[in-house]
Design goal:
This protein is an alpha/beta fold. The protein is built from nine helices and seven strands, in the order αααβαβαβαβαβαβαβ.
């Protein structure tokens, strides 16, 4: 009985205390809570938002190769590379569809995952304005709103909506950027993108202040991956996905179990706020 109570309590507090029980009820008849927990305890689980391409897709592959079970979201139809991963890891990868800017879809995703309990939630989705050399005075209102909503508002909506799918001592992280640092901004450039990531950082600081009271054991992470060669980062990026993804996942794994918010680069070093 004591073990069962510990398992349930580890899943979350308050409204999420039933997470482990919900997972049990979705299993075939005859599966006990202890059997379910024991069979899954050695496989950490992540809900990864934004895995259609680039960093998110590569993160999915890296996590699966390390023994994680991953629920990965894609915006539209499943990309071929994601289908290949699904064929290689049929029991470890679940693919969900989500447009991060659609609040109804976020709510529907939470509903579909009501019987799941994750060790980590990581939001990777993001974008930039078409002309990144535009100053803040030159960007169109439409482009400004799109970048700010996609990079700052929508990630926090996902976090707020899906937080109770994460264990009370789990990790919630979002992909930030070194360009979100106010203190390190000495050269300027990419003003709209910088502003959106700085806003994201501030919103996570506010979220962390609330979490410190309600979930003191939860780890929170803002991750600055570096300038990577992707569709978003451009071909001029200093680093390839192959050389950076192991470092990125290392940071996530090492942050687990360290409560509170940290803003870290891909080597696990603090980034100036």
């Amino acid at each position: 009985m004591h073990q069962t109570q510990s398992i349930i309590a580890s899943c979350a507090s308050g409204s999420t205390v039933l997470c482990a029980l919900k997972s049990l009820f979705s299993q075939p008849a005859g599966v006990t809570l202890m059997t379910l927990y024991s069979s899954q305890a050695d496989k950490p689980k992540m809900l990864l938002i934004g895995a259609s391409r680039g960093i998110g897709l590569a993160m999915t592959s890296e996590l699966l190769s390390r023994g994680w079970e991953v629920t990965a979201t894609v915006r539209n139809s499943h990309p071929e590379a994601m289908q290949d991963l699904s064929a290689r890891y049929p029991h470890a990868l679940t693919i969900e569809q989500l447009d991060i800017n659609d609040t109804d879809q976020i709510a529907q995703l939470k509903s579909r995952l009501q019987h799941r309990c994750y060790d980590a939630l990581f939001v990777n989705a993001g974008t930039a304005n078409p002309n990144q050399s535009e100053t803040i005075g030159e960007v169109s209102t439409e482009d400004f709103i799109h970048v700010m909503v996609t990079n700052a508002l929508s990630p926090m909506r996902v976090v707020e909506t899906c937080q109770d799918r994460v264990r009370a001592n789990g990790l919630i992280g979002v992909m930030s950027s070194g360009q979100g640092s106010v203190g390190d901004n000495v050269k300027g450039g990419r003003e709209v993108y910088r502003g959106s990531k700085a806003a994201l950082n501030q919103y996570m600081r506010s979220y962390a202040a609330r979490q410190a009271r309600s979930h003191p054991d939860r780890a929170l992470l803002l991750l600055a991956p570096g300038w990577i060669r992707t569709a978003l980062g451009g071909e001029q990026g200093a680093f390839s996905l192959e050389e950076t993804l192991p470092d990125i996942v290392n940071v996530i794994e090492h942050k687990r179990g360290r409560p509170g918010l940290e803003y870290l680069d891909r080597f696990g070093k603090p980034v100036t706020w």
